[in-house]
Design goal:
- The complex is a heterotrimer.
- By secondary structure, chain A is of the alpha/beta class.
- Chain A has twelve helices and 13 strands.
- Chain A folds into two domains: about 5-230, 3-Layer(aba) Sandwich (Rossmann fold), CATH 3.40.50; about 235-350, Rossmann fold, CATH 3.40.50.920.
- Chain B has a seven-stranded mixed sheet, sandwiched between helices.
- In chain B, a hairpin with a 5-residue loop joins strand 5 and strand 6.
- Chain B is of the alpha/beta class.
- In chain B, helix 1 (about 25-35) crosses helix 7 and helix 3 (about 95-100) packs across helix 4.
- Helix content of chain C is about 40%, strand content about 20%.
- In chain C, helix 4 (about 125-140) crosses helix 6.
- The two termini of chain C are about 20 Å apart.
- The chains are: A alpha/beta, B alpha/beta, C alpha/beta.
- The interface of A and B includes residues 59, 196 and 200 of A.
- Strand 7 (about 200) of chain A pairs parallel with strand 2 of chain B.
Amino acid sequence: MSGNAALGEAAVLSGCTCYFGYPITPQNELTEYMAKRMGELGRVFIQSESEIAAINMVLGASVAGARAMTSSSSPGMSLKQEGISYLAADELPAVVVDMVRGGPGMGNISPAQSDYLQATRGGGHGDYKTIVLAPGSVQELTEVVPLAFDLADQYRNPVIILGDGMLGQMMEPVSFENIKPPKEYPKDYILTGAKGRPARMVRSLLFDTKEEEEHNWKLVRKYQRMEQNEVRYETFMADDAEMIVVAYGIGARIVRGAIKRLRQENMKVGMLRPITAWPFPAAPLQELANTVHDFFVFEMSAGQMIEDVKLALAGKGRIHFYGRPGGVIPTPVELYRIIGRHYYMAARRKQQ
Amino acid sequence: MKKVYTRPKTLKEAHFHYCPGCGHGIINRLLMEVVDEMDLREKAICVAPAGCGMLLYNYFDIDTLESAHGRGAAVATGIKRVRPENLVFSYQGDGDLAAIGTAEGFHAANRGEPISVIFVNNGVYGMTGGQMAPTTLTDQVTTTTPLGRDPILAGHPVKICEVFAMLDGTVYLERVTVNNPAAVLKAKKAIKKAFQCQLDGKGFSLVEILSPCPTNWKMGPVEACRWIDEVMTKQFPLGVVKEVS
Amino acid sequence: MTTRTIFSGFGGQGVLSMGFTLANAGMLEGKYVTYLPSYGVEVRGGTANCTVVVSDEEIASPVASEPEFVVAMNQPSFNRFQNILQSGGLLCVNASLVDIASARSDIEILAIPTSELAEKLGTIKVANMIILGALIKASNIISFDAMIKNLAELLGEGRSKLIKLNKEALEMGFNYVKE
């Protein structure tokens, strides 16, 4: 099954009852899959007139109490930022999928990781954050998608699934057995018509600056809870490693291939793969820095996640970087050579 | 003694923030009168705009969401698809519906979403200080058309009802005003009809209300009401533009 | 064991379906598989390629830097992908369209006259299955039986005519390669 289709089925099984989307490569298979499946199930599917309309339909469906999702790719995500900011301000749950492609501007349709900062820094206007999940395989989508819907409901906040063109297009065997029926969350904020209760209002307009500030601090406290409780990551051959590669998503998948080769030549390289790009796994990285001096950041971008690695390490250790922006997919051999060279140089430095 | 006039039950006991002579207050009251008379408080969900109408939820005792500027029709679509049994209406100004949110309004209309749009047309951007709106009349002076709106430079007034009438999804489109008691009663009837269309599941309905904005028109309230009759309705003729039975 | 194969050719030559068929058969055999299609702007024409990894263990990367096998259905694909084939790797070539005079000397070439063979079956559309059958024989990536069983699942149980045709094409390619 392709990543895009697997994502769609995982959303269906996670209780997504509304999907709104606008065509953009490389995520069209997801929109097409949802058109078919949601129709079969009598759920809501609309091909909207724009990404802006799609995210606002999501907002409407969410405020009406539904589990709603939209998906897009980089240029379309830029358009969705307005709506994501409103979702965060209104404290409404939603799941937004970004199958990242090469940019900036029109860029191209090849897989890339160049929207990391947009996703992890809020992306739109105002002081807000979104949880960002970065799956690394088609099978992992079946864990990440239900988690995204649950976290969105639990925190009443938009959650971004940050994939890329390759994850969307790639096919792998996939099993959906691990997806449990969706949990119920209290929905005491949704609009249903004021039947037997006072009228509700959902808004982000707070003219009173004191009120707006208090609202902002309330959001911040929520984001702090996320940072405490929702960090997810995976390590690979990190126990005895002398160099740790930090990479996520498909980038991490390619790094795995490279590390296997490096290990065959006794180069002690391991990896830390953030599954939540935000909140970023800073603490585990700091802990690794107690025993490891060299950290190698690989991204399919000109260097965005490296900012988080620098913040996490806070001057400890040495950070190496290799990036391929523009939608270029590096090969495991390429990474093997480059990481190997850095490893060798680092080992020599230690001897001196 | 018999009480002949009172505050609608769903209109909260708050003072309107609107300027003297503004049409919003009348339109707000009309909407809640209709909600009361059609017994819709427990069914109605209102989507408020950005602009002078953005504080509706301070006045309406019904479930209300404030949407981003121009996105009312898309948000209302999302709500209505999840809750088809509710009455969902958006309240949008001319900048909101006829400029920044044209795509959302147009396509909701084209899909025939069974929602109602209350479209308040006062020919200016009121809240931001009286700039040109898409519906500003030819030759009308605003802060961004200091010499009057020149169609060659700034285009023509957008006639939303006439444009939407061409879409197969629309079932009821009427242009009304609120500048005299008879007109107010007509406006109320139009709102009722739009809501009834939605309750009957017929499709997309819209009521365009020509509304006085004395502050930004630089007129007195009475003069503004007269100007609607003498000038505005010449470019925006009143009446039912489309009704599908 | 892990094998990496790149299928390449013109869009419309059934390049992606060759890869998908192999990946699906591998999955039915209980192996780890990944299928990574290239996707371009063109829907028809242009170049197409895909990478299939079949392995007994979890697959680290779906991208192949130095594949063991390459199937080239046209000249541009042959020119491009023979360069990244592993030394000693196998290159299956559509001999009806590709001139192999410029082939590397450290690789094995398997030239299949797909057009001529396909004509015997009455349709050029199964050229891809012929060359896939030949690849299976020469490479042993998966068993030929799994490949045949896979057809019914991919094409739909009811479409017996289509299944028969594809089976014949796979067998033709398989038998074309001498032990």
